[in-house]
């Protein structure tokens, strides 16, 4: 992703490379087959069927989407977002994290993507890899607590979906492997690594590497209550000083007559398919997605690519997002479209529709990676305008395939550059949103809430078995029709389930109130009306 190299590298590549040697993606004119996803045969409850049928013919307003992913990346590598520096006490680390989450809730976000494995290290207790040095300052040093249960629980407590973000191939930031803990996989298995331009990578061409990465991820999915597994855009190394990636021996052993570039892409594809199968085989409901570099290929390299002139992820880092979409080996993609509208080398207005077209006809969700970190930058005039980033969200509304946005990075949730988050909340996030449904991941709507009562300013109801949260709607006119819950105009809160038999939520204002039950995937029951 943007981590581990200068944050402006993507823009710099697009601007300064001679002859636009690096590029982004095109307007594809290809027939896209439906992605072959898992078909777990999820059941549907009567209340869910009723709720869906009641709202199917309703007119909705695109300004108030009922379902929309609104996420933020929380980068731990090099202490970009959290913790702010190494060596903090557990209490200070926790306080910093909670502050980020509270600001996410304030902006009506509903998901966090937290980096738990920046470089073959762990922000959780692991028997496979050492503790991250970004916790204590020393790789392998026990911080005295296991952060991950806290990170997940605090997100869930606030109604935020938690995606565990892994970097698959980065083994170490220090080229001197001897400085790593003795039990680090790169030292135990020196045959796995490739030293490249001062960093250490696992060789994507080795089956043992794919198995190790998959085992690390499976271990986290088994032991922790994460909602998703997430990769960023780091696969084979980004172009740097011109050195060749030294994987010749592996290519000779496993290449089987393929071209080197095709073999490298196939290696990445194999890992992604393997992780996808492992994640869903361990817990069906856990989502698996990737945030690729914003340009698949340029039209100059492939007529079905985008009308852009930046780095091609397909050719430079061997990441073929189109393949993952078509094969259905991801549940979502969140391409990093970190350029403004009108940016010649990589125009947002070209790239966003290109990606929308790529997922059309598939069940792979599309979320857009937005460059919150660029707002206020003076090197590109568009980013000096507060309205640039909000305009991206307005344009997204014209493409129903765009199901949300993820912002890089969390630090800007606290600084609110140019007041841009105020604008986004006012014009786009004025109401909460449920998560987009991924029906093939199973789940089912819980039973309707029972005994819903409104007494003064206290709305309460009896909890439903299996409910992870509840949606609260306020209909100001008091006239409850079948379209009252069709979009988010009347949605006032998504309330995480609390312990105890009865749930409650403080309300204000008149009108009628409805409450529905949601499972962890946000399958929704039919609403129940509050009795006075």
UniProtKB/TrEMBL annotation:
InterPro entries: Divisome_Glycosyl_Hydrolase, GH, GHL10. Pfam families: GHL10. GO terms for molecular function: hydrolase activity. The keyword Signal applies. Residues 1-23 form the signal peptide. Residues 68-378 form the Glycosyl hydrolase-like domain. The keyword Hydrolase applies. Keywords: Hydrolase, Signal. Gene3D superfamilies: Glycosidases (3.20.20.80). PANTHER family: GLYCOSYL HYDROLASE DIGH. This is Glycosyl hydrolase. The lineage of its organism: Bacteria, Bacillati, Actinomycetota, Actinomycetes, Streptosporangiales.
